[in-house]
Design brief:
InterPro entries: TTL/TTLL_fam, Tubulin_polyglutamylase
Distance between the termini: 84 Å
Keywords: Membrane, Transmembrane, Transmembrane helix
Helix content: 25-40%
Pfam families: TTL
Protein name: Tubulin polyglutamylase ttll4
Largest sheet: 4 strands, parallel
Length: 296
């Protein structure tokens, strides 16, 4: 059938050739036209490829803190400058707000007027999950030691103390490092306008070389909806108390035995872990894992 069809239409092949030649001519002309347009607009293309200048609104960051002295935030401002940002203020066309304080209360009016393209280094509710009192007294969070908010729950606390007189307690406030060991009798004197809370001290903690320690995990949240949270599993931060834990004699004044403070003991000064961290060049997490495996 194909042969008969070709034979019955002897002009078909020449017409196909003409169409193909015409398409090639049009394609060639189109290529030359595109090249001409690009050549005539080199300046425009160059400007599109060029990075944004520091004076553009998209490269302005507002670094906010209550204090007029922001020298303690030099690492923040230096980082933004390194990436080409210009430091601005409240009235500038900023695209990034880096706030030291929780902005949804401190800068409530600005937060209600956010424009598309403006980003903030906090999200609504972050103040709750970074607040020691809110986290510790949230009964929906499992595995937390027993906690009482004061002065609201002082009566419940004193009742618990009467039932469990051997329990030890930590008192905490919202200040940085505002933690100290207390006797129950001290809590009874808390004033009505003093917001604080007490939390049961774990009586039999895991010790390494006789010292208590805490573990810091690096987490970043990049989106609320959809919820997107990244947990860095490559390493952790280990910090040890400055003094050995005294399990036999509870001394409320010896805070460094019970609480990890600013002058904590680093991992390289803990002999049982230094063998992994210093000699074997492992990370903090790997050193802890290796130590615990060796104890089994």
């Amino acid at each position: 059938m194909a042969v008969d069809s070709v034979r019955s239409h002897p002009s078909t092949l020449p017409s196909y050739s003409a169409v193909i030649i015409s398409l090639l001519v049009l394609l060639t002309a189109g290529i030359f036209e595109v090249r001409r347009i690009c050549a005539d607009n080199n300046g425009l293309l160059a400007s599109l490829r060029a990075p944004a200048t520091r004076d553009e609104p998209s490269r302005v960051v507002w670094v906010y803190s209550k204090s007029s002295d922001q020298s303690h935030l030099h690492h923040v401002t230096d980082s933004f400058r390194r990436y080409g940002y210009r430091l601005g203020g409240r009235t500038d066309p900023w695209s990034v707000l880096w706030s030291h304080e929780y902005p949804f209360t401190e800068l409530a009016s600005e937060m209600r007027e956010l424009r598309p393209g403006q980003v903030v280094n906090h999200f609504p509710g972050s103040g709750y999950i970074t607040n020691k009192g809110s986290l510790s007294t949230d009964r929906s969070i499992r595995h937390l030691p027993l906690t009482f908010k004061l002065p609201d729950q002082k009566e419940q606390f004193l009742l618990n103390v009467a039932e469990r007189p051997s329990a030890m307690w930590l008192q905490k406030n919202q200040d940085h490092r505002g933690i100290h060991v207390v006797e129950p009798s001290e809590v009874s004197s808390v004033s009505a306008d003093e917001e604080t809370f007490v939390q049961e001290l774990i009586a039999n903690p895991l010790l390494i070389d006789g010292k208590k320690f805490d573990i810091g995990v690096y987490v970043v949240m990049t989106s609320l909806e959809p919820l997107r949270v990244y947990v860095y599993r490559g390493d952790v931060l280990l910090r040890f108390c400055a003094r050995p834990y005294n399990a036999r004699e509870f001394n409320a004044s010896d805070v460094d035995s019970y609480v990890v403070g600013d002058d904590y003991t680093p991992i390289w000064d803990v002999p049982s872990l230094a063998r992994y961290y210093v000699r074997a060049h492992l990370g903090m997490r790997a050193s802890l894992d290796a130590y615990l495996r060796d104890q089994l």
